Amino acid sequence: MKYQVDANGFYGNYGGSYVPEILYKTVEDLKEAYLPIIESDEFKQEFHTLLRDYVGRPSPLYFARRMSERYGCHLYLKREDLNHTGAHKINNSLGQILIAKKMGKTRIIAETGAGQHGVATATACALMDMPCTVYMGATDVERQRPNVERMKMLGAEVCPVYSGNKTLKDATNEAIRDWCCHPSDTFYIIGSTVGPHPYPDLVARLQSVISEELKWQLEEKTGRTWPDYLIACVGGGSNAAGTIYHFLDNENVRIVLAEAGGKGIDTYMTAASMEIGTTGILHGSRIKLMQTDDGQIVEPYSISAGLDYPGTGPIHCHLYESGRARVLAVNDDEALAAALELTRTEGIIPALESAHALGVLPKMKFNPDDVVVLTVSGRGDKDMITYLKYFNG
Ligand SMILES: *Cc1c(COP(=O)(O)O)cnc(C)c1O
């Protein structure tokens, strides 16, 4: 239990709920409501039926034979890339929209970076017939065109944000501003294990279906319910949190997290906030973030829009600080090489975010009988323009 959230919403020194007065009651209401709802039989039934029949779960656990030979271990890939809408984000959006409906909310807002969370939320809103507004940095609107068109076709209103770096942090600020104006009727579907308590815990629980499935899938394939290693990429931390959730208290399971090194952690063109960040408060939570000495946010950089955030959620800050998880920065070029390697050895084109998890493999030294599970958080369709630019000169 020592890695789970405490009664005050903290993971060790991180987390909490730092919200403006006007949102206090809204966040408090969610805090009261979320556990009774997600533990109810009615919710479990609805959520799991959707995950099975709509998302296509369980996602396969695939033994990657050629990659295993290359890295001298038994490498299994958890295929979140095969989910409806192409990533793990849909698990969370469907869970939160069910909660929103049960709380009587009538309008959904969301922020998005690469557009994956925006698409997942617009999808959930189309399915549930709820109006949907998605905030997205103007830079991301430009570099993620296909996802913008998908959201619009799904019926969502996409609002470009022109402040700051015009990326995920700025989109999140704008979503919070909207929420402050409509706290009673609007549900804010946050896309990762970030934001004020209870969001990190809520999102981790909704994504924990990943590790729930891993237990029986591993038993089927290896005769044991746990692996020696779990590897995942970390932006805000939701696919990683879902991957490790049911293994946190099993110290035989080593956890390795990949954050975006960008052009290198000593270049300032980076998003490796656990490694170079310091403690501060952003978007309602105390986390490790990239900031100047007087607390101004340093703009992050990563080739991957989904990892381009100046902080990391409180769960992973605590796992890093306590030594439970090892964190490695994977740079742009290492992620690109890893994406091409997976494509050519296994015929799977991963999302750029997931390619950062794959970029961990060359940095590791495994024993030949180690069972390694790596979560492929999403597929690479949305990143084809970037891949083409680098691989075709
Ligand atoms: C959004 C996204 C991520 C990063 O978000 P987490 O909350 O850290 O999981 C990683 N991979 C893909 C494919 C994404 O869309």
Question: How is this structure best described in words?
Answer:
With 393 residues, this protein is an alpha/beta fold. It folds into two domains: 10-49 and 88-203, Rossmann fold (3-Layer(aba) Sandwich), CATH 3.40.50; 57-87 and 208-392, Rossmann fold. It is 43% helix and 18% strand. It has 16 helices and 15 strands. The protein has helices at residues 21-38, 41-55, 65-71, 89-102, 116-128, 138-143, 145-153, 168-181, 199-207, 209-222, 238-244, 273-276, 314-321, 332-346, 352-358, 384-391, and strands spanning 10-11, 14-15, 61-63, 74-79, 107-112, 132-137, 157-161, 186-188, 229-233, 254-262, 278-282, 285-289, 311-312, 325-331, 371-376. A six-stranded mixed β-sheet has the order 3-4-15-9-10-14, with helices on both faces. Strands 7-6-5-8 form a four-stranded parallel β-sheet, sandwiched between helices. A three-stranded antiparallel β-sheet has the order 11-12-13. A hairpin with a 2-residue loop joins strand 11 and strand 12. The longest helix has 18 residues, at 21-38. The chain is globular and about 55 Å long. The model has no long low-confidence stretch (mean pLDDT 96). Pyridoxal-5'-phosphate binds next to helix 5, helix 11 and helix 15.
